[in-house]
Structure formats: C-alpha cells, structure tokens
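Quick note —
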Amino acid sequence: MPMPAQPVAADPLVARSARLAKGSQFVEIAVGIALGIVIVGATGDRAYASGFSSARFGGEHGHPTTSNPTALHYNPAGIALSSGTSLFADGVLAYRRGSWEHQPHPTERADPPGAEGSNAGRATFANVFGGPMLGATTRLADLAVGAALLFPFGGRSRWDQNTRFAGDARYPLAADGVQRWHNIAGAITVGSLSLGAAYRLGSLSIGVTGNLLRSSLEQSQAKNIVGNGEPDTSREGRAELSVSGWHGSFGLGLLWEVIRDRLFIGASYQAQPGLGEIELTGTLTTRYDGATSIFPATFRQALPDVTRWGLRFRPLPSLELRLHGDITRWSVLMTQCVSLRDRPCEVDPDGRDITADASTIQNIRRRWRDTWAVRGGISHWLTPALEIYAGGGAEKGAPPAATLDPGLMDADNVQGSLGTRVEVAAGWFVAATLTHVHYFPRDNTGRSELTAPELPTRRADGGGRYELALSLFQTSLERRF
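Predicted structure written out below.
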C-alpha cells in the first residue's frame, strides 16, 4: 500500500520536535505520533463490569443492600442499618490472563525480510494486580456517617514477550509481541475518598456520598513513525503516555426494610466521575532510534454512571438469599481523545482533525454499549460465628466487534464464588472469597473497523480471536464495637 504524503512542517508537534532536537528522525517520529498514537485505558476488563478493572469490595457481602462500610460504594443508605461503629479493611487480588490471535489485515504491508510473523500470530499475557479499601462508619440514633478510601477502578497489564525476536539484531522491538501496536504495558489507577451520610425514616433509609477522585494513566505502545496508522516493523518507534487529574462525583441511595430483619430492597445511583467528560493532563513521550521527545498532552474520556438494585431475604435466621444487579452506562464512552495540552481535541464524523491548529493527536473510537449484570447469592450460618456462602451471575460485555482491541479486551461472562466469614473473637470478623470469571471467546476477524477512519483516528486492525479469564481472591477484616 503506498505511503501517505508527509504532513507539512507547520504541524505543531513537528515544529516543537524540531526545536527540541536536531535531525530528521526527530521530526519523523513527532509527525507519526501526532497522526497516530493509540491511547487505551491500560488494563482491560473490570472484574464485574465491562471495560476497566474494578475491585469487588466485600466479596459476597458487597452489594446494594449491605450495611457494612462497603455500602459507601454500593448504596450509602445501607450504613443507616448498621449499629455502633464499624472499621473495615478489604483487599482484592486478581489474576488475569488472556490471548489475542491475529491474522494479517488486507491493508497491512508485508513484513520486511527477517521480520516475518512480527505482526501476526498469538500474543498472551498473565498479570496479577490488586485493589484495597479502608472504611469506617458510625451510627448515632437514626443518623449514620462514614468515610472510605478505595480504588474503584484500577489494574496493571503487561503482555508477554515474543521470544522469536528476543535479542534480534535487526528488529528487537518486535519482541514486544504482535499486539504491541495496541498495547505493550499499561496501568490505570482511580482512587476515591468518599464521605457519606444516611438517615433512617422508619423502615426507609436514604443516603448520599461525595467522592473526590484521583485518576492516573500510564501506557506504552509501538508506533509507526510515518504516522499512517498501520504496523510497520521497519520504521517502528515507541509512544508513552503519562497523565493524571482530579475530579469529583456523588452517590445516592435508598434502602427499604420491608419486613423487619428479614426482607430488604435497595437501589442506588453512582454519578459519572467528573459528572461528564474528564480531562487528564501530563506528557506524551516518543522514542525512535535512541532519540526522545516529550510533549505536554491532555487525555479526554467519559466514564459511566451506574444504577444498582438489590434485595436480601432471610427466610430463616441461619439462611440468607440475595439478588442484585446493575446497569452501567458505558455508552458515554464514545471516544478517547488526546491533544496538545489544554488545546481542542475535535474530529469530523469521518475521524479527521478539524481543529484550526492541528492540536488533535489521536482520536480513538470506542462506541461502547451499555451493560447489565445480575447476580445471586446464598449464605448459611453453621453456627452464629461461622458463615459459608456462594454466589453466581452473568454480565454483558461493553465493546462492539467493530472497536474491540487487545488494549481493552472484554466479552460476555459468567461468574461463580465460594467463601466464608468467621467471627474470630468478639466483634472481630474475617472473610475470604474465591471467585472465577469465565469470559466467552470472541472472534471479530473481518469485522474490525479500526483501519477504516481517516487520520488521526485510524489505527492498527483489531480483528482476531480473543480469550480471557479472571480469578480473584478477596479478604476482609471488620471490627465492630
């Protein structure tokens, strides 16, 4: 396929790169990045909601009708049903593995001699990451207040090396895997300080939280320095994005005790982080043939709001049944866009940059779909101090076949959990849960539309077979007094 014409020197990144360093290769990589860097949300799937990695605080006791401090995340009205003071520490350890098997797209150029197979074949990863939570609540008569430090989104991702090219003298960068044009490694961390209050009006409780969030994103990928959005092992560089920012949100909830100590029905709403589109600022670093250039950048995206519902029923003192679910409005994530810092990031319907000063670096089409999840659970108390429980559920994936890529893998899935909770001493509770999430394989070969849009939206083809699995170990310690 013929190479497109080089952009003119008036491009702001080209001019900036020329000032930073001497030599045409600096200009080349700046041009390529300006037209083609791909930015992703770094980690892939959420544990129980599509798109990003999300911790499942509280295991089977984290849901919209709970009364422990995880209610500050799931339904703040729940803390009005607590008693006394509760201190809660929770952690989730996730083991996530997957693969992407890709065949060459018709528009992709042939690999140069000696690099055959560098851009097609099977790529794999296996990563371990975790998410903590600390929370405290106290209740005085009908009023309860609480605070929590938690990480509702987060994770790490690093793809395995392609051993065929490890140490290769001519094409050493190909060792980062066939998926490297989408993602080599990344990290996303969203931390939240949540303050909440709830009030009980007879059998009905109402609650609210205010959240201060800190988000950061680190991501690296391969990039064709010519900037035409396609893999090219012969002209390969690296692009690294590092951005962060502060934003706020809120949560609202209702919890109705229909039958005293037996039947509870709850509903809650968690607003979007930033209440709409959020901006993270930082730097974009480009590397090619030993040369490095750094540019200030702004990353823009919208994360979803979540509506949750649930019911909890105790037909017997030693038996509890739970059913809950959520609707996550991932359809707000239409694009992820990178621009020169504090400059517009705009494209026309075909994906072409329409800013007056060519400030759009990359526009990534996501066009995700809203998702739903439903989950059931059961607990049995063998003794008043020893509880065993199990749960299961299903969930819809967010990315359509057209925009699915190895950076943000996701699919419809089913889950199952087993665990126990023990009162080890008066007022001290320890819980542990094992969960496995099975994602159904996806194959979007021939259906990916990532190569179709115009620059700066065009990307490497995302077609291929995707496989993914996730296992989690959750443990918590609670102190009540």
